[in-house]
């Protein structure tokens, strides 16, 4: 089967790999139809995020059941499904203390990072990680379920109120999904991006009562002209860090979700004295079913967020659309795409 394989930084290629086989009675073989390109994929390809050499990339996927193990009773051949790629054992210390997204087996089971992923034709997983798709949900739309579940996991760490003054930094897929996830909780706010082209796209698809700005300062002035303070800042870029703490109101939240190396400093006394919360969030934790429901009920307009689709064979063009030029080994911010999906034929 045709697979997009990672060897090392900037060294990825399509290879023929053997089709995986069911080896356990609770496993399911899925024919992959669509996989979203994630920021993690860009980080891996560019050498900014560690992955195991020779693994198949990709993890935001949907497809069709083609074979089921003997003990699988909830699925049958022909079912359309979306895949929860966040494996957890349920038995280790992390899992038993409610931190399944940090399962101690993650170093060998993380889909598309430490174990083979879904930029390919077939994928085997356990039945507990598959959710049936409604007929009206396309495979491409379903690929947004996993990233949305990660947004919901982040939001669950906040004692959120609908009147929180909120700014999201970054108008990429993560920023846009955060805006819709927050809007579903009654929150309105502003989305900031330095790219005018991306802001134009974001402005056309942003939730009701959300606006866009080309600078953090402009958003602050719009939301809180008197004191330039807000209750929640979500940094999807990984470039801002704690530099915005002074613009948080007492008891405010800084949510960090951008995977980028860097060093930030802050005054612990300020954090304590003003009851500030700095939160990091990664992966999905008990939120995949909710994300699945929101996509199915069109609470998230998935089709609007997908700006480009490519065949798996055109992966270089797909990555280039997101600013990741594999041939030249350069990664720059994308200005004309939100979500890009690769489709298997």
UniProtKB/TrEMBL annotation:
Residue ranges constituting the Alcohol dehydrogenase-like N-terminal domain according to the UniProt record: 25-134
Record's keyword terms, sorted: Metal-binding, Oxidoreductase, Zinc
Annotated EC: 1.2.1.46
Domain Glucose dehydrogenase C-terminal residue range list: 143-321
Name of the protein: Formaldehyde dehydrogenase
Source organism: Paenibacillus nuruki
Listed GO MF terms: (R,R)-butanediol dehydrogenase activity; formaldehyde dehydrogenase (NAD+) activity; zinc ion binding
Family of this protein: Belongs to the zinc-containing alcohol dehydrogenase family.
Database matches in Gene3D superfamilies: Medium-chain alcohol dehydrogenases, catalytic domain, NAD(P)-binding Rossmann-like Domain
Domain of life the protein comes from: Bacteria
Cellular component annotations (GO), alphabetically ordered: cytoplasm
Cofactor: Zn(2+)
Keyword Transport assigned: no
GO biological process, one term: butanediol biosynthetic process
């Amino acid at each position: 089967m045709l697979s997009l394989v990672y060897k090392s930084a900037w060294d990825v290629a399509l290879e023929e790999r053997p089709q995986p086989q069911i080896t356990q009675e609770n496993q399911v073989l899925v024919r992959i139809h669509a996989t979203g390109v994630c920021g993690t994929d860009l980080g891996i390809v560019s050498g900014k995020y560690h992955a195991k050499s020779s693994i198949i990339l990709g993890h935001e996927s949907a497809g069709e059941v083609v074979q089921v193990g003997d003990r699988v009773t909830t699925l049958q051949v022909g079912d359309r499904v979306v895949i929860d790629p966040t494996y957890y054992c349920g038995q280790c210390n992390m899992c038993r203390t409610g931190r399944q997204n940090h399962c101690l087996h993650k170093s060998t089971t993380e889909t598309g990072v430490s174990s083979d992923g879904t930029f390919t034709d077939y994928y085997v997983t356990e039945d507990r990680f598959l959710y049936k798709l409604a007929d009206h949900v396309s495979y491409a739309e379903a690929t947004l379920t996993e990233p949305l579940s990660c947004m919901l996991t982040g939001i669950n760490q906040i004692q959120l109120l609908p009147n929180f003054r909120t700014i999201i930094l970054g108008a990429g897929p993560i920023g846009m999904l955060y805006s819709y996830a927050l809007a579903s909780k009654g929150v309105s706010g502003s989305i900031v991006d330095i790219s005018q082209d991306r802001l134009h796209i974001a402005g056309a698809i942003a939730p009701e009562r959300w606006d866009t700005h080309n600078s953090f300062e402009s958003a602050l002035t719009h939301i809180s002209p008197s004191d330039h303070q807000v209750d929640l800042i979500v940094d999807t870029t990984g470039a801002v860090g704690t530099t915005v703490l002074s613009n948080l109101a007492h008891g405010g939240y800084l949510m960090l979700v951008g995977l980028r190396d860097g060093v930030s400093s802050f005054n612990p006394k300020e954090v304590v004295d003003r009851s500030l919360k700095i939160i990091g969030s990664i992966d999905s934790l008990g939120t995949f079913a909710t994300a699945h429901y929101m996509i199915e009920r069109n609470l998230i307009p998935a089709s609007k967020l997908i700006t480009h689709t490519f065949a798996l064979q055109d992966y270089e063009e797909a990555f280039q659309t997101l600013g990741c030029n594999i041939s030249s080994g350069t990664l720059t911010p994308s200005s004309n795409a939100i979500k890009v999906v690769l489709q298997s034929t």
